[in-house]
Amino acid sequence: MKSQPIRIGILGAGNIGRVHIQTFQQLPQDAIVTAVTDSYYPLAQQRAAEYSIPRCCETAEELLSDPDIDAVVIGVPNKWHAPLAIQALKAGKHVLLEKPMAIDVPSARDIVNAQRESGKVLMIPHQMRWEWLPLQLKQQADKGAFGRIYHAKAGWLRRKGIPGWGTWFTRSEESGGGPLIDIGVHMLDLAFFLMGNPKPVSVYGSTYAEFGPKKRGIGTWGTPDWNGRFDVEDLAAALIKMEDGSTLSLDVSWAVHMDTDSQHFIHLMGSEGGASIRGNQGKLLTESFDRAVEVSLTPPSNDEGGRIRLSRHFIECIREGKQPDTSVMTGFTNNLILDAIYESSRTGHEVVLDWTL
User: Fold this and answer.
1) 149 phi, psi to nearest 5 deg
2) How far apart are the C-alpha atoms of 58 and 319, rounded to whole Å?
3) Is the dihedral of CA 116, 129, 103, 175 positive or negative?
4) Pick from 51, 56, 52: which is nearest to 11 by CA?
5) Confidence check: pLDDT of 124 > 90
6) b/e string for 32-41 if b means 16 or more Cβ within 10 A?
7) CA distance 20 to 208
8) Is the pTM of this model over 0.90?
Protein backbone atom coordinates (compact mmCIF):
# COMPACT_ATOMS: atom_id res chain seq x y z
CA MET A 1 0.00 0.00 0.00
CA LYS A 2 2.94 2.34 0.58
CA SER A 3 3.96 2.21 -3.07
CA GLN A 4 0.59 1.73 -4.74
CA PRO A 5 -2.16 4.36 -5.01
CA ILE A 6 -4.89 4.09 -2.38
CA ARG A 7 -8.08 2.79 -4.00
CA ILE A 8 -11.03 5.00 -3.08
CA GLY A 9 -14.81 4.58 -3.26
CA ILE A 10 -17.21 7.52 -3.21
CA LEU A 11 -20.43 7.26 -1.18
CA GLY A 12 -22.58 10.16 -2.35
CA ALA A 13 -22.23 11.49 -5.89
CA GLY A 14 -23.61 14.98 -5.25
CA ASN A 15 -21.67 18.24 -5.35
CA ILE A 16 -19.33 17.46 -2.46
CA GLY A 17 -18.69 13.95 -3.80
CA ARG A 18 -17.75 15.46 -7.13
CA VAL A 19 -15.30 17.83 -5.42
CA HIS A 20 -13.55 14.88 -3.77
CA ILE A 21 -13.42 12.98 -7.07
CA GLN A 22 -11.85 15.97 -8.81
CA THR A 23 -9.32 16.45 -5.99
CA PHE A 24 -8.15 12.85 -5.78
CA GLN A 25 -7.82 12.70 -9.56
CA GLN A 26 -5.20 15.44 -9.22
CA LEU A 27 -3.14 13.02 -7.11
CA PRO A 28 -2.80 9.99 -9.42
CA GLN A 29 0.38 8.78 -7.74
CA ASP A 30 -1.35 8.70 -4.36
CA ALA A 31 -4.97 7.76 -5.01
CA ILE A 32 -7.32 6.36 -7.60
CA VAL A 33 -11.12 6.61 -7.47
CA THR A 34 -12.30 3.13 -8.40
CA ALA A 35 -16.01 3.14 -7.50
CA VAL A 36 -18.95 5.45 -6.87
CA THR A 37 -22.49 5.03 -5.55
CA ASP A 38 -25.46 7.22 -4.70
CA SER A 39 -28.99 6.66 -3.40
CA TYR A 40 -30.04 8.09 -6.78
CA TYR A 41 -28.33 5.57 -9.03
CA PRO A 42 -28.51 7.65 -12.28
CA LEU A 43 -26.38 10.32 -10.58
CA ALA A 44 -23.75 7.71 -9.70
CA GLN A 45 -23.80 6.57 -13.34
CA GLN A 46 -23.39 10.16 -14.47
CA ARG A 47 -20.33 10.71 -12.23
CA ALA A 48 -18.79 7.41 -13.34
CA ALA A 49 -19.12 8.48 -16.97
CA GLU A 50 -17.90 12.05 -16.34
CA TYR A 51 -14.75 11.00 -14.49
CA SER A 52 -14.03 7.59 -16.02
CA ILE A 53 -14.62 5.77 -12.74
CA PRO A 54 -14.39 2.02 -13.46
CA ARG A 55 -17.19 0.80 -11.20
CA CYS A 56 -20.66 2.15 -10.45
CA CYS A 57 -22.39 0.42 -7.54
CA GLU A 58 -26.13 0.33 -7.01
CA THR A 59 -25.87 0.35 -3.20
CA ALA A 60 -23.49 1.36 -0.45
CA GLU A 61 -23.39 -2.25 0.70
CA GLU A 62 -22.13 -3.35 -2.70
CA LEU A 63 -19.35 -0.78 -2.66
CA LEU A 64 -18.30 -1.49 0.94
CA SER A 65 -18.12 -5.23 0.31
CA ASP A 66 -15.52 -4.75 -2.42
CA PRO A 67 -12.16 -6.00 -1.06
CA ASP A 68 -10.30 -3.97 -3.65
CA ILE A 69 -11.38 -0.67 -2.09
CA ASP A 70 -9.05 0.65 0.64
CA ALA A 71 -10.86 3.82 1.69
CA VAL A 72 -14.15 5.62 1.19
CA VAL A 73 -15.36 9.21 1.07
CA ILE A 74 -18.75 9.76 2.69
CA GLY A 75 -20.55 12.82 1.33
CA VAL A 76 -24.24 12.23 2.07
CA PRO A 77 -26.92 14.02 4.16
CA ASN A 78 -25.95 14.32 7.83
CA LYS A 79 -28.46 11.72 9.03
CA TRP A 80 -26.54 8.96 7.25
CA HIS A 81 -23.02 9.91 8.36
CA ALA A 82 -22.91 7.62 11.40
CA PRO A 83 -24.59 4.55 9.86
CA LEU A 84 -22.37 4.60 6.77
CA ALA A 85 -19.16 5.49 8.65
CA ILE A 86 -19.68 2.65 11.13
CA GLN A 87 -20.54 0.23 8.33
CA ALA A 88 -17.41 1.28 6.42
CA LEU A 89 -15.15 0.90 9.45
CA LYS A 90 -16.55 -2.56 10.19
CA ALA A 91 -15.88 -3.46 6.55
CA GLY A 92 -12.21 -2.57 7.09
CA LYS A 93 -12.21 0.69 5.14
CA HIS A 94 -10.48 3.94 6.02
CA VAL A 95 -12.97 6.81 6.05
CA LEU A 96 -12.94 10.44 4.92
CA LEU A 97 -16.21 11.62 6.49
CA GLU A 98 -17.71 14.97 5.57
CA LYS A 99 -18.63 17.45 8.29
CA PRO A 100 -20.39 17.39 10.67
CA MET A 101 -19.05 14.04 11.80
CA ALA A 102 -22.48 13.06 13.12
CA ILE A 103 -25.98 14.43 13.45
CA ASP A 104 -25.77 14.42 17.28
CA VAL A 105 -23.59 13.33 20.21
CA PRO A 106 -24.95 9.77 20.59
CA SER A 107 -24.18 9.11 16.93
CA ALA A 108 -20.76 10.70 17.35
CA ARG A 109 -20.00 8.39 20.30
CA ASP A 110 -20.92 5.41 18.15
CA ILE A 111 -18.46 6.54 15.46
CA VAL A 112 -15.65 7.06 18.01
CA ASN A 113 -16.11 3.57 19.40
CA ALA A 114 -16.32 2.01 15.93
CA GLN A 115 -13.12 3.77 14.85
CA ARG A 116 -11.26 2.64 17.97
CA GLU A 117 -12.39 -0.95 17.48
CA SER A 118 -11.42 -0.97 13.81
CA GLY A 119 -8.05 0.77 14.10
CA LYS A 120 -8.73 2.40 10.74
CA VAL A 121 -8.16 6.04 9.85
CA LEU A 122 -11.18 8.32 10.12
CA MET A 123 -10.67 11.92 9.09
CA ILE A 124 -13.06 14.89 8.90
CA PRO A 125 -12.08 16.98 5.83
CA HIS A 126 -12.34 20.50 7.23
CA GLN A 127 -10.76 22.17 4.23
CA MET A 128 -10.59 25.67 5.73
CA ARG A 129 -7.75 24.84 8.14
CA TRP A 130 -5.71 23.58 5.16
CA GLU A 131 -5.80 26.89 3.29
CA TRP A 132 -2.62 28.97 3.14
CA LEU A 133 -3.89 31.78 5.37
CA PRO A 134 -4.77 29.74 8.49
CA LEU A 135 -1.58 27.72 8.01
CA GLN A 136 0.48 30.93 8.12
CA LEU A 137 -1.32 32.08 11.26
CA LYS A 138 -0.83 28.68 12.87
CA GLN A 139 2.92 28.91 12.23
CA GLN A 140 2.99 32.25 14.03
CA ALA A 141 0.89 30.94 16.92
CA ASP A 142 3.19 27.95 17.34
CA LYS A 143 6.18 30.33 17.48
CA GLY A 144 4.54 32.21 20.34
CA ALA A 145 3.92 35.38 18.34
CA PHE A 146 0.52 35.90 19.97
CA GLY A 147 1.49 34.85 23.47
CA ARG A 148 -1.48 33.33 25.27
CA ILE A 149 -4.60 33.39 23.10
CA TYR A 150 -7.22 34.17 25.73
CA HIS A 151 -10.18 34.99 23.47
CA ALA A 152 -11.25 34.47 19.87
CA LYS A 153 -14.24 35.55 17.81
CA ALA A 154 -15.30 33.43 14.87
CA GLY A 155 -18.25 33.32 12.56
CA TRP A 156 -19.81 33.18 9.16
CA LEU A 157 -22.74 35.51 8.51
CA ARG A 158 -24.62 34.97 5.28
CA ARG A 159 -27.13 37.70 4.55
CA LYS A 160 -29.34 35.69 2.18
CA GLY A 161 -28.18 32.10 1.95
CA ILE A 162 -30.68 29.49 3.18
CA PRO A 163 -29.83 26.36 1.14
CA GLY A 164 -32.39 24.03 -0.39
CA TRP A 165 -35.42 25.30 1.55
CA GLY A 166 -37.69 22.37 2.42
CA THR A 167 -35.06 19.70 1.58
CA TRP A 168 -32.91 17.73 4.03
CA PHE A 169 -30.88 20.90 4.68
CA THR A 170 -33.79 22.49 6.56
CA ARG A 171 -35.31 19.40 8.19
CA SER A 172 -33.83 18.81 11.63
CA GLU A 173 -34.25 15.03 11.67
CA GLU A 174 -32.05 14.79 8.58
CA SER A 175 -29.59 17.67 9.05
CA GLY A 176 -29.39 18.06 12.84
CA GLY A 177 -29.74 21.82 12.55
CA GLY A 178 -29.23 24.87 10.39
CA PRO A 179 -26.21 27.15 9.88
CA LEU A 180 -24.70 26.14 13.21
CA ILE A 181 -24.15 22.53 12.17
CA ASP A 182 -23.67 23.43 8.49
CA ILE A 183 -21.11 26.26 8.44
CA GLY A 184 -20.61 26.90 12.16
CA VAL A 185 -18.82 23.57 12.49
CA HIS A 186 -16.18 24.85 10.03
CA MET A 187 -15.54 27.91 12.18
CA LEU A 188 -15.36 25.82 15.36
CA ASP A 189 -12.72 23.60 13.78
CA LEU A 190 -10.73 26.58 12.49
CA ALA A 191 -10.85 28.43 15.79
CA PHE A 192 -9.75 25.43 17.87
CA PHE A 193 -6.95 24.73 15.37
CA LEU A 194 -5.57 28.27 15.67
CA MET A 195 -6.08 28.46 19.46
CA GLY A 196 -4.04 25.29 20.01
CA ASN A 197 -6.95 22.92 20.72
CA PRO A 198 -7.92 24.00 24.25
CA LYS A 199 -10.43 21.71 25.96
CA PRO A 200 -13.96 23.19 25.98
CA VAL A 201 -15.86 22.73 29.26
CA SER A 202 -19.10 24.72 28.98
CA VAL A 203 -21.33 26.48 26.46
CA TYR A 204 -23.98 29.19 26.54
CA GLY A 205 -25.88 29.82 23.33
CA SER A 206 -29.04 30.87 21.55
CA THR A 207 -30.58 30.02 18.18
CA TYR A 208 -33.19 31.90 16.15
CA ALA A 209 -35.47 31.21 13.18
CA GLU A 210 -36.68 34.55 11.86
CA PHE A 211 -36.37 34.04 8.09
CA GLY A 212 -36.80 30.38 7.18
CA PRO A 213 -40.35 29.89 8.53
CA LYS A 214 -41.43 32.85 6.38
CA LYS A 215 -39.66 31.42 3.30
CA ARG A 216 -37.35 34.44 3.22
CA GLY A 217 -33.56 34.63 3.05
CA ILE A 218 -33.39 31.97 0.35
CA GLY A 219 -29.95 31.38 -1.19
CA THR A 220 -28.78 29.86 -4.46
CA TRP A 221 -27.44 26.55 -3.10
CA GLY A 222 -29.72 23.58 -3.70
CA THR A 223 -33.18 23.32 -5.25
CA PRO A 224 -36.02 24.34 -2.91
CA ASP A 225 -38.89 21.98 -2.13
CA TRP A 226 -41.74 24.34 -1.33
CA ASN A 227 -43.84 21.40 -0.11
CA GLY A 228 -41.16 20.61 2.47
CA ARG A 229 -40.53 22.33 5.79
CA PHE A 230 -38.09 24.48 7.73
CA ASP A 231 -37.67 23.49 11.39
CA VAL A 232 -34.05 24.51 12.04
CA GLU A 233 -32.42 27.80 13.02
CA ASP A 234 -31.22 30.48 10.61
CA LEU A 235 -28.90 32.21 13.14
CA ALA A 236 -26.96 30.98 16.15
CA ALA A 237 -24.73 32.71 18.70
CA ALA A 238 -22.66 31.14 21.47
CA LEU A 239 -19.91 31.61 24.03
CA ILE A 240 -17.65 28.61 24.67
CA LYS A 241 -15.47 28.45 27.79
CA MET A 242 -12.25 26.40 27.95
CA GLU A 243 -10.52 24.51 30.73
CA ASP A 244 -7.56 26.92 30.55
CA GLY A 245 -9.82 29.98 31.01
CA SER A 246 -9.86 31.11 27.38
CA THR A 247 -13.10 31.75 25.53
CA LEU A 248 -14.50 31.61 22.01
CA SER A 249 -17.54 33.49 20.73
CA LEU A 250 -19.31 32.16 17.66
CA ASP A 251 -21.89 33.80 15.37
CA VAL A 252 -23.28 32.11 12.26
CA SER A 253 -26.26 32.70 10.00
CA TRP A 254 -27.87 31.62 6.77
CA ALA A 255 -29.91 34.81 6.68
CA VAL A 256 -29.68 38.07 8.61
CA HIS A 257 -30.43 41.77 8.10
CA MET A 258 -26.82 42.88 8.37
CA ASP A 259 -24.31 44.65 6.18
CA THR A 260 -22.29 41.54 5.42
CA ASP A 261 -20.75 40.07 2.27
CA SER A 262 -21.11 36.50 3.57
CA GLN A 263 -17.43 36.07 4.36
CA HIS A 264 -16.20 33.95 7.23
CA PHE A 265 -14.10 35.65 9.90
CA ILE A 266 -11.92 34.87 12.87
CA HIS A 267 -10.11 37.18 15.28
CA LEU A 268 -7.43 35.89 17.66
CA MET A 269 -6.71 37.96 20.77
CA GLY A 270 -3.44 37.13 22.48
CA SER A 271 -1.36 38.60 25.28
CA GLU A 272 1.48 39.51 22.89
CA GLY A 273 -0.34 39.92 19.58
CA GLY A 274 -3.36 39.00 17.55
CA ALA A 275 -4.55 38.11 14.11
CA SER A 276 -7.54 38.65 11.88
CA ILE A 277 -9.03 36.72 8.97
CA ARG A 278 -11.83 38.11 6.83
CA GLY A 279 -12.54 35.89 3.87
CA ASN A 280 -9.25 35.49 2.01
CA GLN A 281 -7.58 38.46 3.70
CA GLY A 282 -5.48 38.17 6.83
CA LYS A 283 -3.21 40.27 9.01
CA LEU A 284 -1.07 40.04 12.13
CA LEU A 285 -1.68 42.66 14.83
CA THR A 286 0.72 43.82 17.52
CA GLU A 287 2.22 46.88 19.18
CA SER A 288 5.71 48.31 18.70
CA PHE A 289 7.19 51.54 20.14
CA ASP A 290 3.74 52.31 21.60
CA ARG A 291 2.15 52.13 18.16
CA ALA A 292 -0.37 49.67 16.72
CA VAL A 293 1.28 47.63 13.98
CA GLU A 294 -0.44 45.56 11.28
CA VAL A 295 1.23 43.13 8.88
CA SER A 296 -0.83 41.89 5.94
CA LEU A 297 -0.32 38.29 4.87
CA THR A 298 0.17 37.29 1.26
CA PRO A 299 -0.41 33.91 -0.39
CA PRO A 300 2.56 31.83 -1.51
CA SER A 301 3.20 31.58 -5.23
CA ASN A 302 1.70 28.54 -6.97
CA ASP A 303 -0.33 27.51 -3.92
CA GLU A 304 -1.72 24.01 -4.52
CA GLY A 305 -4.84 24.63 -2.42
CA GLY A 306 -6.31 23.38 0.81
CA ARG A 307 -8.23 20.44 -0.62
CA ILE A 308 -5.11 18.99 -2.20
CA ARG A 309 -3.27 19.30 1.12
CA LEU A 310 -6.05 17.66 3.14
CA SER A 311 -6.44 14.82 0.63
CA ARG A 312 -2.70 14.18 0.66
CA HIS A 313 -2.77 14.19 4.48
CA PHE A 314 -5.53 11.54 4.45
CA ILE A 315 -3.41 9.30 2.20
CA GLU A 316 -0.34 9.90 4.36
CA CYS A 317 -2.23 8.89 7.51
CA ILE A 318 -3.37 5.65 5.85
CA ARG A 319 0.13 4.79 4.68
CA GLU A 320 1.86 5.68 7.94
CA GLY A 321 -0.88 4.47 10.31
CA LYS A 322 -1.14 7.78 12.14
CA GLN A 323 -4.02 9.87 13.45
CA PRO A 324 -5.14 12.69 11.15
CA ASP A 325 -5.06 16.28 12.36
CA THR A 326 -8.86 16.32 12.11
CA SER A 327 -9.34 13.00 13.85
CA VAL A 328 -12.47 11.30 15.16
CA MET A 329 -11.99 13.12 18.48
CA THR A 330 -12.01 16.55 16.83
CA GLY A 331 -15.31 15.52 15.27
CA PHE A 332 -16.62 14.38 18.66
CA THR A 333 -15.56 17.70 20.23
CA ASN A 334 -17.47 19.63 17.59
CA ASN A 335 -20.58 17.51 18.10
CA LEU A 336 -20.40 18.05 21.86
CA ILE A 337 -20.34 21.81 21.38
CA LEU A 338 -23.06 21.85 18.71
CA ASP A 339 -25.46 19.79 20.83
CA ALA A 340 -24.69 21.94 23.86
CA ILE A 341 -25.52 25.15 21.98
CA TYR A 342 -28.86 23.73 20.90
CA GLU A 343 -29.57 22.52 24.44
CA SER A 344 -28.57 25.86 25.95
CA SER A 345 -30.91 27.64 23.55
CA ARG A 346 -33.76 25.33 24.56
CA THR A 347 -33.19 25.65 28.31
CA GLY A 348 -31.80 29.17 28.59
CA HIS A 349 -28.95 27.88 30.76
CA GLU A 350 -25.23 27.22 30.44
CA VAL A 351 -24.45 23.61 29.53
CA VAL A 352 -21.46 21.75 31.00
CA LEU A 353 -19.96 19.38 28.45
CA ASP A 354 -20.06 15.64 29.16
CA TRP A 355 -16.95 13.94 27.75
CA THR A 356 -18.16 10.42 28.56
CA LEU A 357 -17.63 7.95 25.73
Assistant:
1) -80, 105
2) 29
3) negative
4) 56
5) yes
6) bbbbbbbeee
7) 33
8) yes
